[in-house]
Specification:
47% helix, 7-stranded mixed beta sheet, two-stranded antiparallel ribbon, alpha/beta
Length: 300
């Protein structure tokens, strides 16, 4: 299940989504960005108070910004999030983006091996868009996704990702997605899991992130540890209108396996991932897209 305070679902009706996709075949992306920044973002900041307030707290408390700078960065964050969403619809319409990739050789090396491996992502940057650009040539790529998305989004995801040998595994209430996840790794495939959201299980682990303890889901890390899988952290960060920078970071699972119990190993792996998230967020503070009180330890 997604966090109770923020569903993470793309807003708008099916008609609106289809109209947006058609319009991208004729409109310049920068022009659409400008319209969104002037007309849409101020509306959301006025009426979507929960997301606005949590993001303001993020910039004040975690990034250490003053009140005016924090307010300005909340606006910039909303603009960047809007650009990320628009980029996805632009891809649905056939537009292309450029990607600068760090450690791509490592990804190709792991893809060429018999064993499967795990990729951890989070709600930072635009991880989804990489799936529309890269083809999984050696191994099938399995991505765990939120099953409550809008029909138009899921339709276009399926169309584009299936062309690149990528299969979506929707999260199910009955936890049946766990069987598909197990099968994917057992078959030597790639499994991509969000590392910052609870999906059906209340189990969590405390990690230091940007100077304060925050709850991370235990499941993804326990799953990787139980399979003794190689783990990569991947972040896809927007650099300019048509360019993204992809960071591929290996997590040191050899150190993880030297820890005590399985839960201790999972907790150590979670902290390694949190460290990578913190480094990326410091570099791209406007691309943190968890619109709820992430450091509120009273609930997940």
């Amino acid at each position: 299940m997604e966090h109770s305070q923020w569903e993470g679902k793309t807003e708008g009706t099916t008609w609106m989504h289809r109209t947006l996709i058609r319009s991208f075949r004729y409109l310049n992306l920068r022009f659409v960005y400008a319209g969104m920044a002037v007309f849409v973002v101020p509306f959301y900041m006025l009426f979507a108070h929960r997301g606005y307030i949590s993001m303001y707290h993020f910039f004040r408390q975690r990034m250490g910004y003053g009140p005016l700078k924090a307010f300005r960065y909340v606006y910039l964050n909303h603009c960047k999030f809007g650009q990320i969403i628009l980029d996805r619809f632009a891809v649905y319409a056939g537009k292309h983006f450029d990607f600068d990739i760090e450690n791509y050789d490592l990804f190709l090396e792991l893809s060429g091996k018999k064993e499967g491996f795990v990729i951890l992502s989070c709600h930072v940057g635009n991880y989804e868009i990489a799936g529309y650009a890269f083809k999984a040539k050696e191994k099938r790529y399995n991505a765990l996704v939120f099953s409550g998305e809008a029909a138009t989004v899921m339709e276009n995801r399926n169309r584009l990702l299936s062309e690149n040998n990528i299969r979506m595994i929707p999260v199910k209430e009955d936890m049946s997605h766990l069987f598909l996840m197990n099968n994917a790794l057992s078959d030597g495939e790639i499994l991509s899991i969000p590392g910052d959201r609870i999906f059906g299980s209340p189990r969590s682990v405390m990690c230091d992130l940007l100077g304060q303890q925050a709850k991370f889901p235990l499941g993804p890390y326990a799953f990787a540890v139980s399979h003794e899988a190689t783990v990569l952290a991947i972040f896809v960060m927007k650099e300019s209108t048509y360019r993204y920078h992809v960071y591929i970071r290996p997590l040191d699972t050899t150190v993880v396996q030297q820890k005590g119990s399985r839960q201790e190993k999972a907790a150590h792996l979670a902290q390694l991932f949190a460290d990578e998230v913190g480094e990326i967020v410091r570099k791209y503070p406007t691309q943190w897209f968890n619109y709820y009180e992430f450091w509120n330890n009273d609930e997940i």
